[in-house]
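Review form for a predicted model. The reviewer records the input and the model, then writes brief findings.
Reviewer: anonymous (R2)
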Amino acid sequence: MAFDKQLPKRSEDISGWYNALMLQAELAEYGPAKGTMILRPYGYAIWELIQKKLDGMFKANGVENAYFPIFIPESLLHKEKSHLEGFSPELAVVTIGGGEELAEKLIVRPTSETIMYASYAKWVKSWRDLPIMINQWNNAVRWEKRTYLFLRTTEFLWQEGHTAHASHEEAIKTQEWAMGAYAKLFTDTYALPGYIGRKSRSETFAGADSTMTYETLMPGGKALQSSTSHDLGQNFAKAFDVKFQSREDKTEYAWQTSWGLSTRSMGGLFMVHGDDKGLRLPPELAPHQVVILPIRADDKLNEFVEKVKADLMNADIRVKVDDRDGESLGFKINKWELKGVPIRMEIGAKELASGQIKLIRRDNGEAMMVAADKLLETIKDWLIKIQANLYKEAGEALAAHTHSSDNYADFKQQMDSTKGFIKAKWCGNVACEDSIKAETTASTRCKTDGTEKGACIYCGAPESEEWYFAQSY
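Model under review:
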């Protein structure tokens, strides 16, 4: 294990802490090609838990999984002009295959709207063929100039849902349902509160009519776009000829949505919940919810440990016994604190004889001696409390770093110092939006759910709506 006790302190060097932690906790490492990432088993196990949670919600709403090719003929991207323009700077293009120059260039998948909707056009003929609700778990490539493990990599893993409907009302309902599924995942599983709202026109997904987003707060006061859901209107349907005969026997174009969440969200998870000692994983996403550290084990102790392990596994609690030779107890404690396991159990002959077993919470360091016959009950209770406490702490940080402003000088000063989310009125004019971004590097993150209107913080135009502004991570 690449374990270094000199992990930089999160409280002093968040960037150095994060980079070192991703490697030392064996979450990921850099791939041989610039900007790529290798997900190690511990990191991939977290992604598998995310998949399981989200996939269950998708299937409960009638979404089916499928898979489409990674290579997209260039001509398909040209069918939707704004989509192509939005992704052109990030595209990876294949020009040679089998030692010969290709007659048509192939785009390595940045997202799958174009290749999927070419098939939808073949499959949809009648209203009876709708809705189509397909999701795929795959990889995507966007040529990033500045990379950061999990948070921004050239290749990443994600899910992308793509639907087609007979009515706009049904499509909007699906867009909102997808964002609701993400919100439930973030609150109940990631223990990450955030703000939900619609993006501005300039921040809307290329080719969409509207984009909904889940915005989370990172240490240092910057915002992370953690997932998005898009109303595509009929834009792609018209470009790809996805049309059908309606119940009224009229030819109509389908209404479509797309929505996605990627391994980028895991970077936010690690950033928000970590501390100077390393990761603090929410129990819902911890590959090991409990780690047992036997001290100078003998046959009697091993027998007890195996019984505890079996009891926990029978209760669907993920448990790891670390009886590895050649590592001191202190080393193992530091190792599992670094890896963020929610509960640590330490047990030796003394504890076994007394019937009192030591449990330690990773989130707050609380230690307790627990009767052997109360271990399962206590661990179940602690896992619930740890999940709730991490969400509470993140919620308090979000509230403390969310401000309101109606004065542009104060707005600029805030973005230059503690940053965070700022609620401010904006007239909707892209010129004001661009000027604010140029002068403060803060962008519109999403519209708030408030209804009160007022003067635009930049130009003073009346009847302006309230938006969340923040600098982007």
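Findings: The first helix runs from residue 14 to 24.
Further findings: The chain has three domains: 14-273, 283-397, 402-471.
Recommendation: see findings above.
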